[in-house]
Structure to design on (201 residues):
């Protein structure tokens, strides 16, 4: 089980790194050609969202490593603080963009993005509250939920760009909102079942 967890964390880290390099880094070319008319008027909100999201995405796997946590507890705690702040920034920017940028698509896209950002924010705040109350198990569980939602951005791109999704839902107006819900609600449900399955109380 230990080795399986290590392999899983390595795979997640590689996928996260690839996503950040492929999807987030291009926006470092801070010009209207890269952002497009869709994002350019709200570019700083997108930058905040991207920085927060990719920071959390890259830090997350390291935080779940038991070996790293036991050897470098102080670093683990400091990275945890960075992770929490990153998600707060990323989610608040996402909430703002759900009411501004997203409305250029349709109301379904606005609602889908908003209800992705809210649990993203709430889950990390709950993780913070649990560690403040010294409830370690609950803290870890909320951190897991938080990262599952964080990883939804990667899963969304994978599903949205798949030929199956494009065949079933040819237009982004119908595909985007549907895929957003699939990308976080179903993984979070599966995560919750796993977390609760063996609990006796």
């Amino acid at each position: 089980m230990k080795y399986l967890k290590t392999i899983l964390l390595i795979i997640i880290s590689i996928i996260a790194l690839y996503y950040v390099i492929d999807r987030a880094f291009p926006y470092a070319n801070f010009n209207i050609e890269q952002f497009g008319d869709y994002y350019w008027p709200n570019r700083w909100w997108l930058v905040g969202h991207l920085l927060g999201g990719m920071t959390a995405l890259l830090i997350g796997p390291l935080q779940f490593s038991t070996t790293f946590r036991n050897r470098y507890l102080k670093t683990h705690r400091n990275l945890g603080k960075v992770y929490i702040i990153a998600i707060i920034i990323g989610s608040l920017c996402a909430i703002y963009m759900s009411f501004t940028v997203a409305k250029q698509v349709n109301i379904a896209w606005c609602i889908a993005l908003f209800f992705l950002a809210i649990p993203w924010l709430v889950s990390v705040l709950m993780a913070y509250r649990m560690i403040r109350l010294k409830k370690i198990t609950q803290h870890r569980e909320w951190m897991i939920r938080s990262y599952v939602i964080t990883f939804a951005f990667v899963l969304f791109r994978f599903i949205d760009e798949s030929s199956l999704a494009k065949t079933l839902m040819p237009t982004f107006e119908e595909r985007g909102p549907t895929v957003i819900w699939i990308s976080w609600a179903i993984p979070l449900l599966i995560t919750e079942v796993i977390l609760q399955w063996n609990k006796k109380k």
Summary: Residues 2-149 form one domain. The mean pLDDT is 89. The CA atoms of residues 100 and 184 lie 22 Å apart.
